[in-house]
Amino acid sequence: MAEVEPKDTCDTSNTSNTSAHSNSNADQPDRLVRVYADGIYDLFHFGHARSLEQAKKSFPNTYLLVGCCNDETTHKFKGKTVMTESERYESLRHCKWVDEVIPDAPWVINQEFLDKHEIDYVAHDSLPYADASGAGKDVYEFVKAVGRFKETKRTDGISTSDIIMRIVKDYNQYVLRNLDRGYTRKELGVSFVKARFFSCFHLFDFLTVKYGFLGVLFSIDLSVDMVTFPWRRNLALYFCLI
Question: Which of 15, 27, 69, 222 has the fewest CB atoms lying closer than 10 Å?
Fold first, then answer.
């Protein structure tokens, strides 16, 4: 496991007084309660930040450690990420609620990990997360069983999967967007034929909206949605390609 990376601005001088084997710290306002939150944190968004805020505010005096799984572990158990592990770690370092980032976090938390980092509580939403490694039905089963789990609430309407879905849904528009901004088709992973298609598609819409040229050429009402006449759009693209 990589070394932990505390923020330079955070005073951790009192953390040595905190015992990972006792939850009585919550009743002692002069001592830091070490709370641990973990996740993938891909495409870090305000839903992530809100969950970390809840974890940070679990107790009046909380030191928040945040574990983030590396690429190898994440890709094995959850799937491909958009951001690299380094980018995900760096995003967490810039979240004001986070006191310390733990890279290469384990997929399943055990007693050894709690003892090593002197963790009093683990904060996460209460939904059971199936353990793809095969160690159990819920990756938080152990900490729940020993009474070291603090529940946080999910933020509805935002997730990494939601963001990816928006991009996939409007794939053509985002390809055109980046082509217009100077990205090459190779950088976008687009074939020559598809790049020409996107360019002609863009030109077709531009001429239709700005000048009505293609609308007049094909004798159609520009107010009509072109999707209704796919053969006319395809014919226009054919003429653009040749």
Answer: 27
Residues of the chain with pLDDT under 70: 1-29, 131-136, 202-242
Q: Which of 14, 189, 159, 39 is nearest to 107 (CA)?
A: 39
Check residue 223 and give its pLDDT. 43
- The three-state secondary structure class of 102 is strand
β-bridge pairing 5-6 and 149-152: unpaired
| Domains delineated in the chain | 5-163 (3.40.50.620), 170-241 (no CATH)
Instruction: Please tell me the total number of residues recorded for the chain in this structure.
Output: 242
Show the DSSP H helices in 60-105 as ranges: 71-77, 85-93
- The string over 130-141, giving b where at least 16 C-beta atoms fall within 10 Å of a residue's C-beta and e elsewhere, is ebeeeeeebbbb
Q: What is the pTM of this model?
A: 0.73
DSSP state of 67: E
| C-alpha distance across the termini of the chain, in Å | 58
Residue 101's H or E segment, with its range, is strand 100-103
Separation of alpha carbons 139 and 105, rounded Å = 13
Pull the structure tokens for residue 2.
């990589």
Rounded Cα–Cα distance for residues 143 and 132 (Å): 17
- Beta strands 33-39 and 121-125 are parallel
- CA–CA dist 160, 75 (Å, integer): 15
Q: At what angle do helices 192-210 and 171-180 cross, to 10 degrees?
A: 90
DSSP state of 10: S
